[in-house]
Amino acid sequence: MPLLKTIGVMGAMPEEIAPLLAKFSHHTSENMGNNTYYRLKLQDLHIILAYSKIGKVHAATTAATLILHHKVQALIFSGVAGGLAPDLAISDLLLATKLCQADIDLTPFNHPLGFIPESSVFVESDLELNALAKSVAQNLNLPLKEGIIATCDQFVSDPARKQSFVQNFGASVVEMEGASLGFVCRDFNVPFCVLRSVSDTADGGAPKDFDAFLHQSAQVSADFVYVMLEKLATSKSL
User: Fold this and answer.
1) Which residues, listed in sequence order, are joined to residue 146 by a DSSP beta bridge?
2) Which one-letter DSSP state was computed for residue 87?
3) Are 157 and 41 in contact (CB under 8 A)?
4) Which part of the chain is the Nucleoside phosphorylase domain (predicted)?
5) What are the pLDDT digits (tens) for 144-189?
6) Could you tell me the residue range of the domain that residue 182 belongs to?
7) What is the CATH number of the domain that holds 31?
8) Is the residue at 105 inside a domain?
9) Among the options 15, 200, 203, 209, which is catalytic?
């Protein structure tokens, strides 16, 4: 990957980008498409930061705006997710290897769950950005797990629904934006990676856990992404 001059960073909610925005003493902003895009700078690296609002449609709109209007060369998503894998605890960090739209169902037409004609079930994260994330984790001596992310327009708090994502997609976490921005990035040949910190366990206690641990988990993910940005700002290439 060549030297990155402009990178986009996304969250879904204000709580997911606030910890990152707080690390910069100066910024400018631009409103477009009922959303705000913050312009930041870290040495010579230009950063465009935005929260999309919750859900796949908003994530796709924001990702496309970052790519087409702000001309970002890569995109990092930082946020929280519901844990599906039994080895994930609250505040654990997960790096997506690939992502799927788990609520797409064209099985009456003999397609597998999550499949869209002329597309695919999964979209894969960028290997070089993921390698950077793993290098940061190693340098910080911070556990970073890898796995599949299931994306759907639903806050999952039902154990049966949770188990279906594990069985059908091998997913480790579930959230509401990642695959959407991933497919947009793939369509425009823009590398991306998605980092999620576990805020709940996607079961009956999920709403209470989410409210209790949202800020803590968002801070974990934002802190990690900031170190990635520092590395990008000082690197000649990945």
Assistant:
1) 95
2) T
3) no
4) 6-225
5) 999 999 999 988 888 888 899 999 999 999 999 999 999 999 999 9
6) 6-234
7) 3.40.50.1580
8) yes
9) 200
Q: Is the pLDDT assigned to residue 83 strictly greater than 80?
A: yes
Single pTM value for the model: 0.92
Examine residue 89 and state whether it is found in any structural domain, yes or no. Answer: yes
Tokens found for residue 6: 């402009």
Would residue 16 show up in a list of annotated catalytic residues for this protein? Answer: yes
43-46: which pairs have CB atoms within 8 A and are 24 or more residues apart?
Answer: 43/233, 43/234, 44/5, 44/233, 45/4, 45/5, 45/6, 45/7, 45/229, 45/232, 45/233, 46/5, 46/6, 46/7
Gyration radius of the chain's alpha carbons: 17
Count structural domains, the chain: 1
To which residue do tokens 């994530």 refer?
59
Quick check: is 203 in a domain?
yes
The verdict on whether 158 is a catalytic residue reads no
The pLDDT value given to residue 159? 85
Report the relative pairing of strands 6-11 and 75-83 from DSSP bridges. Answer: parallel
Catalytic, out of 16, 175, 203, 209 = 16
